[in-house]
């Protein structure tokens, strides 16, 4: 029953979405919600940061915002607990990933821009630049170009059909003549 309700909610979201027709026309996935895109972007950002942060993970975690706020003593305790957890195995990538996942779980307003801001503050512009590029990348890289091309093609076809209808109505073409011309092309 729960799966059925979830599927009905998904159908309702797709039906009421303003870009559903465009996605169908461009043969893009329809069911992907904005929340799913946001969560995927944030998890990708967490993976990128943890791969490249190295020893700066401590400064990163200390600078991250939390909502609801966490005291400095709790943040320091998180750092010590994580160091103890990975004392016998694990590198800075594992530690950073663990703490960033914890941050996403504890910070109810976690966003990629928070990570970018802190990375800039701790002078890790290399990672911040990567995240900014990810954050501003469209869902489908060629979407804007495809939309313009598809619309101009649709307009051209519309003008052609309108012209042919006018010629049929005026008697310039008979249906048989039009059919013969179309078959030749």
Indicate the radius of gyration in whole angstroms: 27 Å
Structural class: mainly alpha
Number of strands: 0
Main β sheet profile: none
Average pLDDT across residues? 80
Structure, described:
The chain is mostly helical and 185 residues long. It starts with a helix and ends with a helix. It contains 10 helices and no strands. Helix content is 74%, strand content 0%.
Summarize the structure in short:
With 185 residues, the protein is mainly α. The protein is built from 10 helices and no strands. The model has no long low-confidence stretch (mean pLDDT 80).
Give the arrangement of secondary structure elements.
Blueprint: H1 2-16, H2 20-25, H3 34-52, H4 57-63, H5 72-85, H6 92-106, H7 112-121, H8 125-136, H9 143-170, H10 175-184
Helix pairs in contact: 3-6, 3-8, 7-8
Task: Considering the chains and any ligands shown, give keywords for the structure.
185 residues; mainly alpha; elongated
